[in-house]
Amino acid sequence: MNEIEQLINIALENKKNSYSPYSHFRVSCAVKTGTGSIYKGVNIENAAYSPCICAERSAMSAAISAGEIEFTHIVINGDSHDTFPCGVCRQFIREFADKNTQIVIANAVDDYRIFTIDELLPHSFSNEDLKEI
Ligand code: THU
Predict the structure, then answer these.
(1) What is the rounded distance in angstroms from the CA atom of residue 55 to the CA atom of residue 15?
(2) Catalytic site residue 3?
(3) Whose CA is nearest to atom 1 of ligand 1?
(4) pTM of this structure
(5) Measured CA angle at 22 (ends 18, 117), to 5 deg
(6) Which of 3, 5, 13, 56 is catalytic?
(7) Which of 111, 87, 114 is nearest to 103 (CA)?
(8) Whose CA is nearest to atom 10 of ligand 1?
(9) pLDDT tens-digit series, residues 46-91
(10) Where are the domains of the chain?
(11) Does the domain spanning 3-120 belong to CATH 3.40.50.1860?
(12) What confidence tens digit (pLDDT) does each residue in 85-108 have?
């Protein structure tokens, strides 16, 4: 089993922890950092709706809070076929991903596609823009 398949298995297994009593749409994310550590996250909903956090930001926040800001893999599995990150998550990912970060849209261990952040969020605004002022 390659490292991507291993991460997909972790994401699939972790989807049971999704807290999604309002949408009933479960999303799970497993990320691997530059040091090789793995962090997991799920979507966490809220009765007030807007405080909801997506699985991607949940997993990456766990890593960042542990001092890890380099990501080699961001693996996403949701309850729909090909669950892609929402627009907010794409911008969040943009902050920490580079061209080598593999964003994996996973349906199953043998059914996944890999994207870069430039493919998912072309012409993005980033810290590169702020360097110009
Ligand atoms: N959701 C995610 O966790 N990640 C995405 O990329 C898409 C949407 C969650 C948010 C909400 O809890 C549920 O899926 C339905 O939108």
Answers:
(1) 9
(2) no
(3) 54
(4) 0.97
(5) 55
(6) 56
(7) 114
(8) 54
(9) 999 999 999 999 999 999 999 999 999 999 999 999 999 999 999 9
(10) 3-120
(11) no
(12) 999 999 999 999 999 999 999 999
